[in-house]
Design goal:
The structure is a homotrimer. With about 350 residues, chain A is of the alpha/beta class. Helix content of chain A is about 10%, strand content about 25%. Chains A and B meet through helix 3 and helix 4 of A and strand 22, strand 23 and helix 4 of B.
Chain lengths: ~350, ~350, ~350
């Protein structure tokens, strides 16, 4: 079903292979009518007997009962409702299992290693084994690039930057004053390491404060197109391993983001704020500077956060408050505004 | 009046030519003092007898009565208030007529066709007639580019991308996994077709869900600088013909935008949301995922939309509500906060 | 303490040199135990006897009293609390003095002048003395670039653009239809001079209104990565001298920003709005079109401004109101929502 210009499919895989690749366990339901070779992934309502699918949300149980999929990742409790002809793969996290098998069918495209003679690589740059450097890429002196890393067309790797192995640096992306781990994906026109916005302000002009830190990005981070991460003032700006940052996000100097955080598109994080492990920041959230957002905290989209948020808490609104209080404020204001009559004015 | 370094003017045009180019009708008012050759466009208060202008808003009737413009696009009802020496062009939509004649005086600059030998064009790329390919542009294998299309400096057209005729792709723009129609304008450092932000989230790390769709952009779409449009997960992300998208907008995977929609700067549209034909989204609006915004709906700037919006409705606020309710909430809160006294606390 | 890959330090400086460079005055406190040569800057709590630091905020007086710094910029009133072994430099604006000396220790890196033979410079371009033009930069016909200006890798300077002396144009930045002063810093993937978002809207399609103005940027302006500034419709878009604009800001056509304004990240300014000298716009602020923001006005982060703001006023909220009113609204809504009980519904 995919456009063959852009995607090529691996497989087919047997049920045993799929179980092994995903950590799911096969539920033996005694029927003999089952498929045992699977050639693609598909949603519940579109899957055929050669497809594998998943059920993750109780909302879709009806689709599950009617599905023609050859196999399905499900939680154990849904076994009784499965169609007879469907193979069952039991998982505590069916969507995660599905993601893994989808990756097996459609591994991320990887260009053949080559170094374009139309790239611009300085003499002292150290380029690892089996790298791909596209035309127009600029790689300055004293840079280090690990094995199998891809540098996209017209990307810019400025003086002294270090990039790990198996990274993918998108076209037009600019890097300076940064240290990047392994398996990091930077999409396109990302900007990492420019000066932070630091000035000694004054009526007669603002004096720039030299920004003397770096950006440190750990392993397995992914950063979306157009996102900007300023370098630290002296301390570093830091993005912990496994964190995923969407497009057009702004991250100020000295910000510290923990591991496995999620930062959705167009978020802005002001200088020196710390975001804990596994926190989730919804789209267009704004954080003031010098705050602490606890591990596992969740901020609703468009929140304007002006104070610390405890670990595990859910906040929303602007100024942001605990999410129940925000909902209560919204309801209160709605009711009061409907009660008002002209004579109240 | 324009800076001749940047703009060159066509013309002059006669009144009959102007009427023909814009669909306006000439009102014969019997005076003989009229100009009949027009060499430029200008606003009401700056126009001279050789200029053509327009009246679109009743606020400017005084300027109209005092204007020295040689000709003016107006609605019929304003005829009695016109200066005697002014030629009148009657139109139901004077601003639209003005836009058309301004285009005639100042057609969009178009470089002479040439293909720079400092561009990087793969062997299997198919380049149409009379294209312009600037230095540093990277055009990968299996791409198709229509006639008279311009590819700006350092733009990136990745594997398999198809672009129609008479398009203008700005400098530094990156394209992949997309199909683009005719007469499409992409400004600069636009990013189309990167992976959507799709992960099976988990405490021990987030697993990427392969993004297997495309971005389909129909004819006559215009997209502003820095805007990002993610490709679909399996379905496509879709932008309907004639829609205009401003700078720094984020459009998530599987979003479907109808025809002739207007999306102002810094809007964010979450995954799988559908925006109907002719809808207008004000600046910095945020839309949650999986919503339906009806045809012709209008969303005030900075709205945070968390539920469907009916066709033709106007909404505002965050969470967004019908615009009258939003205004009522604002007034209610203002009044209540002014009524409060210390002893209320 | 800095990473020597990225920064190199000048100095040391004597106390007299530091006073002279910053305009601070030396306070003779009679002790003989003082250092007189300083080799670095550091914060109060990390400084050693060879470092210079500053005290700007009364919150840090305890750190000041305990600091081991060899010298410190302070306001006169803090003299009595200084450690005995510390040299004192008296200044009305200690942070500004600190910024100046930090610049002396760490001047902005400046590449050696060179013009890459992998850049693309048109024949009629005029390039000043001692410029640096990186590989992949595209400099079109009829452009003028002043002395000692740096054009980053893959930057695009389109037809007719004028850039002053001592500017730094970042990698991937695109410029057209603009006139840029001296000592201007544009970070990376900045987009200046594209068409504004101007259409005569209609149900059957939107007609583009030619954008016939320019962007004029005065001296000493700094503009962050990813920021977009549209050119004027006929009048110019204007950024006054000394103004500092952060990353991912959107500035619409005909906007006029005065001198020494501060515009924080992700702000959006709609067409024809005027921002006065020294105004400060917090992160993610949105301004409607055709407004006047007075000189020295302050807009809290995330404000949605729909009406004029007087000079010197502080506003917040959305719709924005005087900041005291906004705080009162927030308090009122919080209290009312906590008072509500189920029987109120």
């Amino acid at each position: 079903m995919v456009d063959a210009r852009f995607y090529s499919r691996k497989g087919p895989f047997t049920l045993a292979e799929i179980a092994s690749l995903t950590g799911a366990s096969i539920y033996e339901n005694g029927s003999s009518a089952h498929a045992n070779s699977f050639s693609d992934v598909a949603p519940l309502d579109k899957a055929s007997t050669s497809d594998i699918t998943f059920l993750d949300n109780v909302k879709y149980v009806e689709n599950f009962r009617a599905s023609k999929a050859g196999a399905c990742f499900i939680r154990e409790k849904f076994i009784p409702q499965a169609p007879l002809a469907m193979q069952l793969l039991i998982s505590d996290d069916p969507y995660r299992a599905y993601a893994k098998i989808a990756q097996a069918f459609y591994p991320a495209a990887k260009p053949n290693p080559f170094i374009s003679d139309k790239s611009n690589i300085a003499k002292s740059a150290s380029i690892g084994k089996d790298c791909t450097i596209f035309p127009g890429a600029f790689i300055d002196e004293q840079t280090i690039i690990g094995d199998r890393t891809v540098i996209g067309p017209n990307a810019i790797v400025s003086y002294g930057t270090t990039i790990g192995s198996d990274c993918n640096i998108g076209g037009g992306t600019t890097l300076s004053h940064c240290i990047i781990g392994n398996r990091v994906v930077l999409h396109r026109n990302v900007n990492i390491g420019q000066d932070g916005f630091g000035f000694a302000m004054g009526k007669d002009g603002h004096v720039k404060v030299p920004q003397l830190g770096r950006v440190v990005i750990e392993d397995d981070v992914e950063i979306g197109s157009g996102t900007c991460i300023d370098r630290g003032t002296g301390p570093d700006t830091f993005i912990g391993s496994g964190s995923k940052i969407d497009n057009l996000v702004q991250i100020g100097h000295n910000v510290h983001i923990g591991r496995n955080a999620i930062v959705v598109s167009q978020v802005g994080i002001s200088g020196s704020t710390r975001v804990g492990d596994g926190a989730v920041l919804g789209g267009q959230v704004g954080l003031a500077g010098h705050l602490r957002i606890g591990a596992g905290a969740k901020l609703a989209a468009k929140s304007g956060v002006m104070s610390d948020v405890p670990p595990g808490a859910s906040y929303g609104g602007s100024p942001a408050v605990p999410i129940k209080d925000w909902h209560r404020q919204t309801v209160t204001l709605t009711k009061l505004s409907h009660k008002r009559r002209p004579e109240d004015d």
